[in-house]
């Protein structure tokens, strides 16, 4: 099946590039391994949860940092901490790395630095979301064409 | 035949089917964790709320084998949950965090975590977590050496290390095995099987208020230094209780005491700060106290209830909380109440006394730290009043010769939790011309306060039991019932009553403290009784939060007032009955801790006193501080 093989190749290439760019790391591969016939949509589920959660956290951070009267860095830090946890759980390496930097700015109570980091988080998050959605679409196409999703080691 | 086989197969299959409760507020991580655990063939239950988790755990002690919890959670600090679970349910808890800061890891260990995992969690790590269940079972079962203290370090390290300290474990196990011969026959209260690692359902010993009270009394009698499991066991004279049970409980208690002492210091400070309570507050306080109590009782989390006005988490979280709880619950008067409560111990009839009460205690410092501690402080401060103050003092010395700090903590704890309750009681009692009337109110408040506290430390409040029985009508006689507040020196009710469950050791301490304090403070006319009640209440409150039918870990809270009258949590025995319009606080842990009719303070006091060692003599006519055992009513 040419179409299926083509799609599979595409999938592999795309996946590899994501890993290479550091958008995804090994943890994501672990997630993919957890997906099986009992939980066929596991990765998509987790990713969706993550997207939702991330958006919420970003909003929290933004709101907290906008406070004119005084930024509650503890609150920002708590959100960043949570984002760090979930991004590392899903394998979103770049997002996680930004969080690490973000946290140090929070500790230093550096509003400017925090805002910059927040921008970065938003950027990385959007990038990740797009890429993952593309990846999932590819997966779906393979399955529809009757093929199976290749496992990337 | 078939059934047997199935049963044994299930057992043999362990760790397959191990029941895990996973708690994490992050949905992504929670889903991942759940999937990983299922992949390991465990039986998984998840929740994103710590409070829900506690509720589930309290509902049924034997429903889970292991708990995995995130450290950072919005509704409750992971460490607190850790403590509560350890104390109340004695389940292994594994902490989870994205933060690998050594300090945090250390904190986890000291709070009793079996393990500390970093996110993202790997399946390989999860495949090994079942060992903690086995290890814990072995620990509980094994006989601690004759000297409890000796065991403690070992146990502590083993348990604390919790991880792969196989050698240690092995050694300990061996030692235990050798010494275990005679214990092997007894079944733990919950029927712990002997050395059956595959027995997943190790019945847990439920440290009811009654039981805990006995425990505390025994420890007090022996002196904390000399309290070894064997002797404690003998003194307690409870069937089906093994030395291991006592040993592990003792360990927790000690931790609790230690914790309380820290808290106590803080509280003392707070208490000092809060010292000046307006007498008028007292009245209000008392009412409030009650209200709070109820509130407390109402909520699973003691502290929540207690602190209606205050942010619950704050209160409960700490050791001090018990005290704080009591105090917190009360709206501004609450604070006052604290003082009241504390004073109540004194039985000084005046409210001022109450206030002074707290400061009187030497534990003031402990209390100073927090509002909760305020309570304690008050108690402690009440020294001036002598009654209550005495209690703390007395208790501390009498109860636990462990360490001054402990005592302080006790007192603090006392004041915080139990004291609070107590104090208020006494205060209240005093306030009113009629002892009875006033008492009722006081007790209530006091009780509530105490209740809270007790709730925390319920575990230790075994001693409070007697007190609760004493709580008769508040009307009865506050006087001098300086019901010995069994303050378990150690355990201050740290965790908020609700949380009481968790803190493993600390909680115990706290509760002990609370219980102790509560008891002792009752002396005030009827106030004492109230204290008892309070203490019991605390327990009940504590139980409440625990939400488990049993008293749970010595929830020594005498959440008397709250619980009972308002249909306090079922957990907490509604020992407090409303009599004649007062809340007769009968600290009755679920298990009928106190005779229902302990209405009078006298009863309370006497109950308290009884429970405590009869070390103390009543201070004066006003209250008898007999057996001032401080129970941490946290």
UniProtKB/TrEMBL annotation, chain A:
GO cellular component, one term: nucleus
Cross-referenced InterPro entries: AHP1-5/YPD1, HPT_dom_sf, Sig_transdc_His_kin_Hpt_dom
Keywords tagged on the record: Acetylation, Cytokinin signaling pathway, Cytoplasm, Nucleus, Phosphoprotein, Two-component regulatory system
Subcellular location: Cytoplasm, Cytosol; Nucleus
Molecular-function GO terms, alphabetical: histidine phosphotransfer kinase activity; protein histidine kinase binding
Sequence ranges assigned to domain HPt in this UniProt record: 39-142
Listed GO biological process terms: cytokinin-activated signaling pathway; phosphorelay signal transduction system
Residues with Phosphohistidine modification: 81
Principal location listed in the UniProt entry: cytoplasm
Function: Functions as a two-component phosphorelay mediators between cytokinin sensor histidine kinases and response regulators (B-type ARRs). Plays an important role in propagating cytokinin signal transduction.
Comment on protein domains: Histidine-containing phosphotransfer domain (HPt) contains an active histidine that mediates the phosphotransfer.
This protein's name: Histidine-containing phosphotransfer protein
Lineage: Eukaryota, Viridiplantae, Streptophyta, Embryophyta, Tracheophyta
């Amino acid at each position: 099946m040419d179409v299926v093989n083509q799609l599979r190749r595409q999938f592999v290439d795309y996946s590899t590039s994501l890993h290479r760019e550091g958008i995804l790391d090994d943890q994501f591969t672990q997630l993919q391994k957890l997906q099986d016939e009992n939980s066929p949509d596991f990765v998509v589920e987790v990713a969706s949860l993550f997207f939702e959660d991330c958006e919420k956290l970003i909003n929290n951070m933004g709101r907290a940092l906008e406070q004119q009267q005084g930024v509650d860095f503890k609150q920002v830090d708590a959100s960043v901490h949570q984002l760090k946890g979930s991004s590392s759980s899903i394998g979103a390496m770049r997002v996680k790395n930004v969080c690490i930097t973000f946290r140090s700015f929070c500790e230093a109570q550096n509003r400017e630095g925090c805002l910059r980091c927040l921008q970065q988080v938003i950027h990385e998050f959007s990038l990740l979301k797009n890429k993952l959605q593309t990846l999932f679409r590819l997966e779906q196409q393979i399955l529809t064409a009757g093929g199976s999703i290749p496992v990337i080691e | 035949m078939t059934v047997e086989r199935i049963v044994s197969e299930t057992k043999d299959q362990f760790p397959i089917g191990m029941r895990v409760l996973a708690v994490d507020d992050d949905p992504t991580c929670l889903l991942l964790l759940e999937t990983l655990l299922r992949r390991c063939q465990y039986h998984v239950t998840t929740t994103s709320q710590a409070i829900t988790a506690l509720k589930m755990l309290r509902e049924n002690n034997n429903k889970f084998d292991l708990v995995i919890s995130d450290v950072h959670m919005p509704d409750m600090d992971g460490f607190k949950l850790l403590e509560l679970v350890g104390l109340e349910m004695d389940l292994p808890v594994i902490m989870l965090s994205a933060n690998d800061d050594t300090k945090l890891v250390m904190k986890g260990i000291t709070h009793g975590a079996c393990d500390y995992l970093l996110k993202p969690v790997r399946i390989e790590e999860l495949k090994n977590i079942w060992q903690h269940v086995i290890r814990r079972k072995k620990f509980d079962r094994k006989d601690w050496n004759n000297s409890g203290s000796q065991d403690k370090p070992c146990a502590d390290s083993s348990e604390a290390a919790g991880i792969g300290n196989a050698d240690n474990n092995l050694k300990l196990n061996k030692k235990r095995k050798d010494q275990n011969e005679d214990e092997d026959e007894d079944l733990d209260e919950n029927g712990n099987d002997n050395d059956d690692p595959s027995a997943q359902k190790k019945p847990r010993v439920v440290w009811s208020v009654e039981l805990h009270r006995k425990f505390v009394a025994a420890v007090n009698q022996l002196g904390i230094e000399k309290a070894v499991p064997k002797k404690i066991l003998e003194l307690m004279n409870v069937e089906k209780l093994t030395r291991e049970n006592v040993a592990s409980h003792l360990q927790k208690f000690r931790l609790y005491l230690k914790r309380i002492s820290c808290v106590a210091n803080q509280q003392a400070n707070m208490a000092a700060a809060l010292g000046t309570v307006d007498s008028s507050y007292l009245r209000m306080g008392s009412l409030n106290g009650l209200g709070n109590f109820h509130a407390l009782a109402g909520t699973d989390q003691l502290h929540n209830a207690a602190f209606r006005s205050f942010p619950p988490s704050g209160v409960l979280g700490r050791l001090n909380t018990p005290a704080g709880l009591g105090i917190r619950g009360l709206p501004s008067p609450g604070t006052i109440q604290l003082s009241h409560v504390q004073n109540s111990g004194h039985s000084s009839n005046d409210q001022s006394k109450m206030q002074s009460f707290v400061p009187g205690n030497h534990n003031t410092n402990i209390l100073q730290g927090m509002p909760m501690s305020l309570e304690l402080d008050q108690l402690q401060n009440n020294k001036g009043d002598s009654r209550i103050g005495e209690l703390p003092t007395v208790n501390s010395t009498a109860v636990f010769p462990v360490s001054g700090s402990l005592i302080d903590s006790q007192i603090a704890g006392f004041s915080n939790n139990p004291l609070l309750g107590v104090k208020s009681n006494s205060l209240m009692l005093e306030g009113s011309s009629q002892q009875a009337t006033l008492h009722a109110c006081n007790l209530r408040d006091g009780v509530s306060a105490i209740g809270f506290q007790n709730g925390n430390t319920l575990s230790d409040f075994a001693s409070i039991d007697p007190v609760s029985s004493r709580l008769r009508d508040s009307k009865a006689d506050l006087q001098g019932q300086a019901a010995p507040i069994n303050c378990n020196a150690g355990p201050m009710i740290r965790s908020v009553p609700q949380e009481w469950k968790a803190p493993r050791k600390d909680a115990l301490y706290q509760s002990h403290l609370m219980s102790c304090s509560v008891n002792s403070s009752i002396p005030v006319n009827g106030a004492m009784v109230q204290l008892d009640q309070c203490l019991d209440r605390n327990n009940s409150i504590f139980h409440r939060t625990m939400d488990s039918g049993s008293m749970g870990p010595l929830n020594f809270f005498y959440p008397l007032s709250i619980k009972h009258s308002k249909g306090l949590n079922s957990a907490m025995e509604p020992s407090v009955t409303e009599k004649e319009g007062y809340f007769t606080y009968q600290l009755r842990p679920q298990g009928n801790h106190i005779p229902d009719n302990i209405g009078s303070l006298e009863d309370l006091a006497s109950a308290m006193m009884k429970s405590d060692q009869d070390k103390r003599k009543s201070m004066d006519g006003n209250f008898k501080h007999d057996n001032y055992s401080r129970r941490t009513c946290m």
